[in-house]
Amino acid sequence: MTNYTTTQTLNIAQNIATKICHDLAGVVGAISNGIELIEEDSSMAAEAMEMIKLSADDAAKRLKFLRQLFGSAKVDEIALHELQSRLTEYYNDGKINISLTGPDIIKYKDYQLALNVTYFTANCLIRGGDISINIADNISINASGATVIIKPEVAQGLQGDADNISPYTIQPLITNMLGNAQVNASDSSLQIVAQSA
C-alpha cells in the first residue's frame, strides 16, 4: 500500500468531506426550500411536504451509501445480498441496471471495493447502461452503455495520483487505496478487474 505524506493524507480527508457535502447539498437544500414554501404559502403545504419527503428519502439513501463507500466497519464478512440491496437501493432510477454473482458470504473489504468500483463504473456510463459484477478471487466488472467516458484526471486518481486531488477525483483514489484495479474501456464498454489490498 502507498505511504502518503502528512500533507497528502490531510488533503485526502478534506476532499472526502467535500465530496460528501457536495453529494448531499442538493437534497438538503430541497428540504430547506420545502420548509420555506410552507412558511410562505400554507396553501402549498401538501406539495411542499411531498418534496420534503422525497428529498429526505434521497438524502438518507445517499448518506447510507456514502458511509459504506468511504467509512469503516467492525465486521470481517458480509452477505452478498447486502451488496445487492445497497446497489439496487442507490441505483433505483432505471438508468443503471446491475446484476451480481458471487458466494453467499464475502469479505467486507471485497464488499467495500465492489461498491467503489461499481460507483466508478456507473459514473463512466454517461447515459446509463448495464453493469455485471462477479466476485470470486477478484472483482470483475463488465459494463456497457451508449457512452463510456473516463476523464484523464479520473484515470489518474484510479492509478493512485495523490498530488492532484479534488472532490471529483477523490473516489477513484479511494478505490485505488482499497485495491488494485485494471481498466479496459472503449466508447461503449468498460471492463474492470479489481483485487483487494
Q: What does this entry look like structurally?
A:
53% of the residues lie in helices and 21% in strands. With 197 residues, it is an alpha+beta fold. The protein starts with 5 loop residues before the first helix and ends with a strand. The longest helix has 35 residues, at 6-40. Strand 6 (179-185) and strand 7 form a beta hairpin. It folds into 2 domains: 6-70, Helix Hairpins; 77-196, Histidine kinase-like ATPase, C-terminal domain (Heat Shock Protein 90). It is built from 6 helices and 7 strands; from the N terminus they run ααβαββαββααββ. It has helices at 6-40, 45-70, 80-90, 108-124, 152-158, 170-178, and strands spanning 77-79, 96-101, 105-107, 129-135, 139-145, 179-185, 189-196. The strands form 2 sheets. It has a 5-stranded mixed β-sheet with strand order 2-4-5-7-6. 26% of the residues are buried.
Fold topology:
Elements (H helix, E strand, L loop, with lengths): L5 H35 L4 H26 L6 E3 H11 L5 E6 L3 E3 H17 L4 E7 L3 E7 L6 H7 L11 H9 E7 L3 E8 L1
Parallel strand pairs: 2-4
Antiparallel strand pairs: 1-3, 4-5, 5-7, 6-7
Helix pairs in contact: 1-2, 4-6, 5-6
